[in-house]
Model the fold of this input.
Amino acid sequence: MSINQHIKPVTTEERENLTIGGCDLTELAKRYGTPLYVIDEATLRGICKEYRQAFKEYKNIKMMYACKALCTSAVIKILDEEGFGFDTVSAGEIYTVFKSGVDMSKVLFNGSNKSAREIELALEYKVGRFSVDNFYEAEMLHRLAGEKGITADILLRITPGIECHTHDYIQTGQTDSKFGFDLSQLDEIISLIRSKYKNLNLKGLHAHIGSQIFEQKSYYDEVGILACQIESIRKKYGIQLEEMNIGGGLGVKYTESDTPPSVEELAKAVTEAMHKYAIEIPTIYLEPGRSIISPAGVTLYTAGSSKRVPNGRKYVALDGGMADNPRPSMYQAQYTAQVVNRLKSKDFETVTLAGRYCESGDILINDINLPKIEAGDIICIYNTGAYNYSMASNYNRVEKPAMVLVNNSQSDIIVYRETLDNLIMYDVIPDRLKK
Ligand SMILES: *Cc1c(COP(=O)(O)O)cnc(C)c1O
Done:
């Protein structure tokens, strides 16, 4: 089984206590407070190794971690050590990667509305690739690169005409998407690059078919579409593109009913498609985000108040919720939880784990069967490594949680818990209000 097919971090052990990375979760909660994000280093490094091994037959493969899943300096550092490059989408992500000591030639700058300031920063930091998303950006990047007297190596982001949903995918002629060039616009942009945009050096094509993908066949189709486009560009213009970036999207197992393919199955779909289309593409880029970091992360919460609706649900309120994990309220995401300090309990009941935020939709898990919870119990929600901290907010003016890295029974803070002073540090009261 691949790590993305596990609900829990690979080092999770249930003996007397529940431990991850050899660290007792009750102890972590006591020492660092809750809510607390916990990242298991062995799980993170384990999935990196799986990606490397699954694709080792295809030697010109480059792994780029999609930073938007979780972008903190320590995580970047580990992925850099594991040989990954980085897919970034903002000045903030580029800056974090740069400050973590990464060789910036391994960085790609992607996004559908990059600002001039962000493009200038990316040019100054010498990011290796720009994924050019639209006509407006192509002109701007050409101009800004020209001002600095450099040529930017680019990929063209295309909408391949496959729409992926969690369990199935639809192949469409056109996809109504805000990202990338429609296939019918490729000729026009390539002509512009050849005739006018001399500061752009076209290296390849880029696509991303969606997220939390459960069908490896969609990758097979995607590679096919990209291969056909590359071949037709070679025939029409005599340009041999060297790179194909197939994006990320491999799914993870949030609950028992999720059945993502393994990394090996993904690799098989990609290599089979490459053999079938047999075109010369020296380098394939992969950009996994969720599957790399989600299974490595859990969030610890402390239970507080509870309420039983007469003849209805029982709600147990946790000390976090939609501000540290917006996924359930944003897209009905499902999660698996465990009561850390009641491993031996036989007394179960069905409860709804509610968040602490002032919003009815702030529910973390609906109707889950758990040991009877009392105030002060520690709840662990699994698979929160991706798109939790990275999407966190200060809604209700609550401090964002701390994050610790666990490994070999050691725990280290990698993100400090915010303080009340952090929350007001950007506030200004104009002098005229101070009278
Ligand atoms: C979001 C995104 C990814 C990562 O997707 P995951 O589902 O987290 O693997 C990769 N590439 C692009 C272009 C993206 O927008």
